[in-house]
Structures are given as C-alpha cells and as structure tokens.
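Aim 2 progress update. The chain analyzed this quarter is reproduced below.
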Amino acid sequence: MGKIPSRIFLDTSVINFIVEHAELIFDGYYHDDNLNVRVRMDIFALYQIFEIARRNPIEIVVSKTNFEEILRTNDREKRSNLLSYCTEIWHYFKSSTKQEFEISEKDLKLAEGFLKEKDFLKITDQNDRRLLLESLYFKCDHFCTRDWRTILKHRELVTQIPIKIITPWEWWEKIEGVIDAPNKEFEVIA
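Predicted structure tokens:
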C-alpha cells in the first residue's frame, strides 16, 4: 500500500481552476458534458481529494509567488475571489504548521544554485521555477499543476529534483488506492 501525498503545493493554475469551477468541485457535479474530458477529470479528482481531506491529514500549500501572480489578474472580481481562496489556504496551512510565509531571496538563490546541477533550469519560466523552489522550501511531497504549456510539458526533464510534479487527476490516483475513497466513480465518456 502506498503513501498519501500529505503536503501538496498548488500551482496558481490549480488555484485558478478551483475558483473557476468551485461550484462543480465542491458540489460534486462533474458530469457537465460541455466541459472537455481533462477538465471533468480534474473536477472529479479535486472533489474527491477535498472530500478525503475532511477526514485525513492533507496539507495544501501556497506561497507569496501565488499571491503575486494572482495580483496580476485583470478581472477585479476574479482577482478578489482568487485572493480570498488563496488567503484561506495560506491561513489554514500557517495555523496548522506555524510555517513562515516569507522565503528570503538569499535562500531562494542558494536553492536555485544547488538545483542548477539537477536539470532545474529546463523549466524556463522564472515564476514556475520560483514556485517549484518554494514548494521544496515548504517540504512538499508533490507540486500540483494544470500548466500543460510549461511545467507539465517539461516535467520529465526535471527528474532529479526531490518533488513529484502532478496534475489533480494524478494526485487523485495516488490517493485512490491508499484510502477508503468516497463511493463515487468517474467514467470517461468521450
């Protein structure tokens, strides 16, 4: 039997996805045929994960860089919703771990220098690298993203860093076989 990923860092793409599909995720409605299969799978996965998180110790982590990316959202209402959700995650994580929010630039530069040897610079987007560094700083087991253009596209090139890069669906697959999941099934109907 495997181990449940217990500390997951959320990429800003996942925070956006959760806020955009909150009603579907938190109400468990993932059979919307107007959505593509990948979106429905991730909605289903996040619904299951949040149901399980009510009864199991799963720490969800965000960072200062998530907030900085969210602040660049043009739509004021969406930005407000994103900030609210991200703040809620941060406060929950901080209250349960007493973890500090700030990571010094010096510590980030030292970590990046160390990771240069480990193919880390193959992730070319500076914010993506920073988010990955922050996830390592917070000792996360996994980095959850929906960013298929950069992070997921290149994740097999970054195999030497001590964190697994996964999608929400892959996160769910890691949990599903380990614990007693809610009694719902997902069937891909294409």
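Residues 7-102+139-145+163-176 form one domain. The longest helix spans residues 76-97. These observations will guide the mutagenesis experiments scheduled for the next reporting period.
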